[in-house]
Design goal:
The chain is an alpha+beta fold and 280 residues long. Helices cover 35% and strands 11% of the residues. It folds into three domains: 118 residues, Cytochrome c-like domain (Cytochrome Bc1 Complex, Chain D, domain 2); 76 residues, Orthogonal Bundle (Cytochrome Bc1 Complex, Chain D, domain 2); 46 residues, SH3 type barrels. Strands 4-3-2-1-5 form a five-stranded antiparallel beta sheet, with no helix packed on it. β1 and β2 form a beta hairpin. The N terminus is likely disordered.
Length: 280
Amino acid sequence: MIATRWLCAAALILGALAWSATPVRGQANVAAPPPHSPHPKASPESIAAGKDIFAGTCAVCHGVDGSGSNGPNIRGVGAQMGPEWVYARIRGGVIGTGMPSFTSLDDATVWKIVDYVMSLGHEDAGVATGNPQKGKEIYDANKCATCHSVGAGEGGNFGPDLSHIGVQRSVASLATAMTDPGSNLPLDMNLQERATYAAYVVYRVVTNDGRSFEGMRVNEDSFTMQLRDFVGNLHSVQKFDVKSVEPEPGKSFMPSYKDKLTPAQINDLVAYLSSLGEAR
């Protein structure tokens, strides 16, 4: 589990640093990777294997397709910086940050991850073409700040903080969230077993005495689980009192705006969201 969290952190730093145009070789704070084997020729098999490794580790922050989840969009990073740069970020670490040196990973494993990262971004992840100012007006008119915050203390905490959503999610991912919010949910970065559970999933809880309710899990330990219901009330349940806890796929506390906003309005709202966090 520790290795999973560390590799997720590695992918997060990789994505964040990718927004800088300075290659790894010219940065003094980037540790030089240890001597390594040459990069084998990438193949469909190595990319597929890398995807599986990425899905079990890095996807916690970046989503399976690298378009962003709780971490930034890293599609196109490999094409921009090259395989040696990606290798160095994963294996060599970055001094003074939370990204360690992954000397425990063998070269073959790292190169498979590199091959998959290099394959990301060949499809168009989308470009925001709407009007951000109009999008901000739509955001305010629909009272999105009731659940979301933009900036310190500005808004609610029922949904995810959107302060840096523009560098965390792709345009395509943001558009999907507007029309089908129950899909492509971010992974939970607070639960101890965060690599296992998606955040903001709606669960249906049935107790041994027949009571039931729906809620989002906000915390869990060996004996209890805490969930928040649709109106914000917290429920703490003892696990030995629970008959079942089942996720409800596709269900979300966030409403779909597919039939509430026009395609142009959704485009403007996505443009506003994609502008958030650019100066980070």
